[in-house]
Amino acid sequence: MDRITEYDEEDLEDSKELGLADTANKNDAVDQKDNRAVARIRYVVFLVLLSVTVAVSMTIYVYNKNAEVSAFEDHFKDQAAKVANTFTFNAERRLEALMGFSNHITSHALTSGEQFPMVTLPNFERHATITLQLAEVVAMVVLPVVTFEQREDYVKYTMAKQGWINDGLALQQQRMDEDNEEVLHLQEQFDKGQLITNSSDVDSTKNVPPLIFKVKPGTTEPEFEDGPGPYTPFWTFAPAIPAWNLVNFNAFTHPTRFRELTAFLQAKTTLLSSAADLRKNDPLTTNRKSVMNLFLNRWQNGTFEYEEGPVSDIYVPIYDSFEPDKKLGQILSSYIYWQSYFTNVLPEGQNGIVSILENSCGQSFTYVIHGPEVTYVGEGDLHETKYDDLVVQTGFGAFLGKDAVEVEPLEAQCFYNVRIYPSAEMEADQLTNSPLIFALGLMGVFLFTSVVFLTYDRVVARRHEKIETKAIRSTAVVQSLFPENVRDRLYDSGDRENKKTHGGGFWNDADRKNHAVDSNMPIADLYPECTVLFADIVGFTSWSALHTPAEVFKLLETLYARFDKIAKKRRVFKVETIGDCYVAVTGLPEVQEDHAVFMAKFAAQCLEQLNPVLHSLVDRLGPETANLNMRYGLNSGPVTAGVLRGEKARFQLFGDTVNTAARMESTGAAGRIHISQNTADLLVSAGLDSWVVPRETMIEAKGKGKLQTFWIAPEVELSFTARSTKSSRLGRQTSAMGGEDDDEDEARDTVSRAVHRLVNNNSTQQPSAF
């Protein structure tokens, strides 16, 4: 057969992807594309879920955070308004109390007939105590305005009226034991001077000094006041303290009061001084701190002791009458301890409110309010600048407002304003981690949902992959068994059955009618021009008896896999293998004009490839394998092809043409291609009469009688060319090489039946189109 066909190995190599492998590759390409699309969609879905999670969580966080911040700001403004309103209210009320006490002294002078500056309010301590409580000042001191001419009479007057001190002390005897330290300090400072060398019989610790004195410049030592006046000596003060040596001290000469009293005597109107922090180690304020502690020891039941913080003096005029031409007779000087203005303003739990007390004289002091208590932080504006936009303030008119001053502002006059800010402490108390916790919780829920979704998606994807793999294998098996047009009709039939089973309740009458007809129609067609081939291994029965089943299948798979490749190349449709018999057909499922030529070339090429395949298996299957051979039988004519539906449906050929082809094979010779008269006529009509060699004797065919048959001439050269014809979709051919696909084995088992059953089935069939 070396002259029959020059087999093109390169062309066969191009057609390796047959049967299941070809199907898998094409499906893999589609699947990979689909999988990439699904992966992209999954990635996009994950990004969308993640983006939505982050966006929603951030939105919720920002919303809740802003709500908390807004609530914090509103809460602060409420508390700050309380502080500001309380400060303004107290300032007005306390100033009115001081002015009322001033008018009380004027009224006493008018009713008693006393002349200023020698005027003393009876029961001074009792009257002053009420004013101290209303004005909430630490102390009040009456400073008579004494001229040089009135000086001697005034000193005699004070010596005669000094009993008011003992009267006042008698009302607060319980405080006397706590005064010793401060009294000793004041007495020590007083004794440094030389005021009473000529009056040794006077006890300076129990009597007022018998003269008006001042402090030596740059020191705290007293000396005789020799100035021309006017003088503003200390006279009555409340609360009473055991400091007789304060009486008759000319306040005009004190460094911190000189500028204030000078301005006051010029304007003769209420004046509020700058503030001084008495805790500083300033020699000029040392005595003032001692005096302040003596006063504080009696103020508000002794609950205060001066430690720090600014103190101011307020000066209120005491006139000699209420007439328009009234004259200044005395001055009511009071100590304002600013810390008291921020005490007991807020309830417990309201912490961290920063109050800045500032004045028009360029000073500022910082306090922090913690509920009813207040802490002095220090001099200067020490609030946190990040809260600047939340400031609440009283304005400089809160205490002795500018609009209340009838003359130009005095040089020493200071107007006060309070600025109120929140602090980090207050913010920490009001703001919580709830927005963050809520946002994180929401994010956790979203992430958990996303993970569950992705996990579910992955499980479904894996299940789909398994189902898809099985479907691909099943499809490959189906494609190897059925032509494409038959497969499509089988699928349509299956879809209708599913519709009937699962959705029959929704069918209309037309659907039911069509299904009733279609379900009874067989899947079969008549193909009038076909050529059928039967090829059988000669000596296979005796050979298989000597070999194991695995070796038998190895032989069949290797040999028929080679035939499958040639069939695909030659546009031959493989029908089935029945035992060691190979059945193929041309002319279906698509019409082929040269079907006999195609089949003749296919048979010749299979015969040519037989020996190389058998010799390649000698090492594995034994030398007797090389002795095997094959018979080939061809017949042409009409063929009925279709599917016998049932549990194991398969594609089958029916008709006399098939019977005759089987007889051609069974009556043929090993290593020869035996053809019928019909096939020979087609080859001759195709101009290939040189291929056809009449058989020497006629054969006796069962049911046919004597027949004239022919051989394909072995000496005729058939060049292998791939004819340039319209590509036909012959379905998938079974690639049995390797035999590892269980589904394929099952399909092969299903179609493997005895040759005689095929022949017997066809012996009674006549060509029909059903």
From TrEMBL:
Keywords: Lyase, Membrane, Nucleotide-binding, Transmembrane, Transmembrane helix. Residues 723-736, 759-770 have a biased composition (Polar residues). Residues 723-770 are annotated as: Disordered. Residues 531-665 form the Guanylate cyclase domain. Its main location: membrane. Gene3D superfamilies: Nucleotide cyclase (3.30.70.1230). It comes from the Eukaryota. PROSITE patterns: GUANYLATE_CYCLASE_2. GO terms for biological process: intracellular signal transduction; receptor guanylyl cyclase signaling pathway. It is found in: Membrane. One of its GO terms (cellular component) is plasma membrane. SMART domains: CYCc. Pfam families: Guanylate_cyc. The chain crosses the membrane at residues 43-63, 436-456. This is Guanylate cyclase domain-containing protein. It comes from Amphora coffeiformis.
